Amino acid sequence: MDRGVSISPAAVGGGAWAVLLAAGAGERLGIDRPKAFAVLGGRPLLAESLDRLDRSPWVDAIVVAAAPGWEEPSILLSEELATTKVVSCVTGGATRAESVRIALEDVSEDAIVVLVHDAARPLVADTVIERVLGPLAEGFDGVVPALAVPDTIKRVEHGAVVETVSREGLFGAQTPQAFLAPALRRAYAGDLAGATDCASLVERSGGRVAVVEGDRRLLKVTTPEDLALVESWL
Ligand code: C5P
């Protein structure tokens, strides 16, 4: 496997580790580079979440997953931001779940908690990080920030509605998602097929996952319009 360069052999062990996922292609943005390097407020999108996680008192160490060929620019960005918690930058995999599995290999065996965050959600606030960590002390294996689905949900096939799904009890899951490190490792030791977030794998492996209030500003940047909206919130 083509592994990224270790930035600093930080003597970090236990505590809370953050995995920052920046290895997605982001084709729908229509740019010639990964989404993490789209420009947001005059700097790469990745800078916003990297800076915020690095300054968070809740985070002790960070592993970044970069797209193949984008490890060096990610490391340079980290140096420009003068981060102090980035331990390594790994080359991400073909899917989000594979990127997480690869990044987890660089998370210390002594880590107690792992936060997994999408770089595509730049505006990660300390208040949300604090919220997702809370239930881990109350017997939960994982915690997801989520927002109740406001729209009426339709299942559609070939342009026609086949079912209207009750939105009662439906939530849209965001990141950062927080996990007890052993529970997350157990989940990622199994089959990763079909996993679009980490919590689904923890649920599948028998873990208990709590939901806390998400944040509208944690919008995942997918289209140029999303990028403009997030920029307006900076
Ligand atoms: O593609 P999706 O919207 O699910 O991506 C969510 C996050 O996962 C993004 O921050 C993206 O960079 C990351 N990702 C990754 N490796 C992949 C695919 C997505 O790190 N192979």
Please explain how this structure is put together:
The chain is of the alpha/beta class and 234 residues long. It is built from 7 helices and 12 strands. Strands 1, 4, 5, 6, 7, 10, 11 and 12 form an 8-stranded mixed β-sheet that branches. The longest helix is centred in the first third of the chain and has 11 residues, at 45-55. The structure holds cytidine-5'-monophosphate (C5P). Cytidine-5'-monophosphate (C5P) binds at residues 21-24, 35-36, 65, 92-96, 99, 118-120, 220.
Please render the helix and strand layout as text.
Layout (H helix, E strand, L loop, with lengths): L15 E7 L16 E2 L2 E2 H11 L5 E6 L4 H10 L5 E6 L4 H9 L8 E6 L7 H8 L8 E7 L4 E5 L2 E6 L5 E3 L3 E4 H8 L9 H7 L4 E5 L10 H10 L1
Parallel strand pairs: 1-4, 1-6, 4-5, 7-12
Antiparallel strand pairs: 2-3, 6-11, 7-10, 7-11, 8-9
Helix pairs in contact: 5-6
The protein binds cytidine-5'-monophosphate.
TL;DR of this structure?
By secondary structure, the chain is of the alpha/beta class. It has seven helices and twelve strands. The strands form three sheets. Strands 1, 4, 5, 6, 7, 10, 11 and 12 form an eight-stranded mixed β-sheet that branches. Strands 2-3 form a two-stranded antiparallel sheet.
